[in-house]
Amino acid sequence: MNRLKLLVVLIALLSARELLLLARPQAPLTLDATQQLAPPKRGRGPFPGSTTPGHSADFPIRLDQLIPTGDLKPDGTVLIDFRITNIGNKPITLPISIRQGNLLPNPPNAEYTVDILTLWLTGPEAIKEEYLAGYLGDPNGRLYKSESPETSAELYGRSDDPQSFYALAPNQSLVVHASSRVGLKAGNHPLTAHAELLREFIGLDTVSPRSRAVHATSRVIGTTDSKPQKKMFSTGNDTTQ
User: Fold this and answer.
1) Dihedrals φ, ψ of 32, to 5°?
2) How confident is the model over 72-94, as a mean pLDDT?
C-alpha cells in the first residue's frame, strides 16, 4: 500500500514538473544577420512605413526594437535586435534564411515561391542624409531623395526548401540580430522599426529548351511597424549629453 502511494506521489510530481516546463516561456529563436551583405535596392520600396505602431490585417505581428548600446561605430552604424512576436491565435510561417541563393528553381521544378521578410529603420532626425539619397546619374552627380531607404536585414524562405521557414507559434518571438546598415547622427533621436513580408512567384522560361531566363511577380503579404523609440547615440569622442 505504501509503495502504491509513493508511486502515485511520484507520478503527480513528474506531471507537475512537465506542466511547469510547458508553461515556461520558450527562449526566442535568434538569427544572426550582422554579417549579411546588403542587397541591391529594390525597384520599389520598402516603403518608409508608418510612425504609428501596428500591423496589417492579415499579419498579426508585433515588432519591437532593442538597441543594446548607442555607441556608434566609425561608419555610424549600430547593432540592433528586431523582436518579432506572433500576437495572433494561429502559427505564422516566416522565412529564416539569411541567404537568398540563386534564382533558378531546383530541378525538376520549373517554378517556386520565395518569401522575403525585410527589416528596416526610419528616423528623419537620426539617419544621415547620405543613407536616404541616391545618385540621379547626371554629369554633376546630383543627389535626389530616395523612396527606398537602406534596409537592415532580409530573411528568405523558398517553397522548395522547408528548412528555410519557421512556424512562429502564438505568443512566441523571433529575434533578428542585425546591423542598422544606415549611419546615424550623434544625439538623442527617435527610430522606428518596420517589417514587410513579400512573396515572389518565380518561374523558369520553358518555351525554349536552351533558355534559362526567369520571370517573377510579387505581392505583399503583410507589414508591421514598431513604436518609435528614442536612443542616445554617441561616438567615442562625442560629448553630447
Assistant:
1) -100, 110
2) 96
Residue 40, φ and ψ in degrees, nearest 5: -60, 150
Type of residue at 135: Y
pTM greater than 0.85: no
Q: What is the C-alpha separation between 63 and 80, in angstroms, rounded?
A: 13
Average pLDDT over residues 160-185: 95
Helices (H) and strands (E) in the chain, counts: 1, 14
Peptide bond into 46 cis (omega under 30): yes
What percentage of the chain exceeds 90 in pLDDT? 54
Instruction: Determine the Cα–Cα distance for residues 51 and 145; give it in Å rounded to an integer.
Output: 19
Dihedral angle sign, alpha carbons of residues 189, 131, 51, 80: negative
- In the DSSP assignment, the letter for residue 127 is B
Of 128, 27, 139, 121, nearest to 79 by C-alpha is 121
C-beta of residue 61 within 8 angstroms of C-beta of residue 167: no
Contact 237, 99 (CB under 8 A): no
Burial environment of residue 229 by CB neighbours within 10 A (0 to 12, 13 to 18, 19 or more)? middle
Q: List Cβ<8 Å contacts ≥24 apart for 219-222.
A: 220/196, 221/58, 221/59, 221/115, 221/197, 222/55, 222/56, 222/57, 222/58, 222/59, 222/61, 222/196, 222/197
Give the C-alpha separation, 241 to 239, whole Å. Answer: 6
Among 171, 163, 180, 161, smallest CA distance to 229 is for: 180
Indicate the length of the chain as a whole number.
241
Question: Could you tell me the maximum CA-CA distance found in the chain, to the nearest angstrom?
Answer: 96
> CA gyration radius for the chain?
23
